[in-house]
Design brief:
It is built from eight helices and twelve strands. The protein is α/β, with parallel strands linked by helices. The strands form three sheets. A six-stranded mixed sheet has the order 6-9-10-3-11-12, sandwiched between helices. Strands 2-1-4-5 form a four-stranded antiparallel sheet, with helices on one face. It has a two-stranded antiparallel sheet with strand order 7-8.
């Protein structure tokens, strides 16, 4: 299977009449872990939702290509079948649909009509992944996210990712509200997929998740654009200096004097 490539070029997006993304450029390839950091209100979650095709977000310019294919005309389910995955900041509860049934339906949708995963193969795979994530097997038969704690919902997002094996995963603040043990589990799940056929974009406020998922690239996002990129050391520097340091650098670079 070829190495996946997600290319975002000069992306502009707005909600109603309010511009949110203002010329964002980013490339994520298989074998790479990218982290996007930035202050509240800078458009990080909007970027994640735009990538998956949320109808509230209107793209006014730019392109999003996965493996050379334009995904903008695609519906969210089509993007998922192409191998794009979003772990949401606030996962939805779906009453009446068990986690196991949801996952099997999602896997079958990826595999295509007439190529359903055999039930025993699915259950064996699900049991193995749940053991790997230290999840109680009973979660498989509970309604999706219903009554789950915040940490259980985030762990369930990682379960979905490991079962679906996407080509590019976007993790939107997957660490928010988690204790250290849960963050370690999230890191364990992401690291287990890392390789030439998998790339990830981690959106986060804090450096702590990056202690367990070591990024190849760190990008700082301000006012709807990526304004600074570097290696993992950039996250450490940002943790020490804060976002005011980035704003100060931007002001100095814009100062003609």
């Amino acid at each position: 299977m070829s190495t996946p490539v997600l290319e975002i070029t000069d992306l502009h997006m707005q909600i109603e009449d309010k511009p949110i993304l203002k010329g964002l450029n980013l490339s994520v390839k298989g074998g790479e872990i990218h982290a996007v950091m930035g202050p509240n209100g800078t458009g990080k979650t909007s970027l994640a939702q735009t990538l998956m095709g949320h109808p509230r977000y209107t793209i006014t310019a730019g392109t999003i290509r996965l493996d050379g294919r334009d995904v903008i005309p695609m519906k969210p389910d089509e993007r998922a079948r192409q191998g794009l995955f979003l772990a949401m900041q606030y996962p939805s509860e779906i009453s009446g649909v068990t986690t196991a049934n949801f996952l099997r339906a999602a896997i079958n949708a990826r595999r295509g009509e007439g190529n359903n995963i055999p039930l025993k193969q699915f259950r064996d795979q699900l049991d193995e992944v749940m053991r790997f994530l230290d999840m109680d097997p009973k979660f498989a038969n509970r309604y999706l996210n219903e009554g789950f704690s915040g940490g259980e919902k985030k762990r369930n997002e990682i379960l979905q990712m490991l079962m679906l094996k996407p080509r590019i995963a976007v993790l939107d603040e997957i660490d928010s509200g988690l204790d250290i043990d849960a963050i370690k589990i999230v890191g364990k799940g992401v690291n287990s997929l890392k390789g030439p056929e998998f790339g990830a974009l981690i959106i986060t406020h804090y450096q702590r998740i990056l202690d367990y998922v070591h990024p190849d690239f760190v990008h700082i996002m301000v006012d709807g654009r990526i304004v600074k990129s570097g290696d993992a050391g950039l996250a450490t520097e940002l943790d020490k200096k804060g976002y005011d340091w980035v704003r100060s650098e931007l002001m100095n670079s814009a100062d003609p004097a």
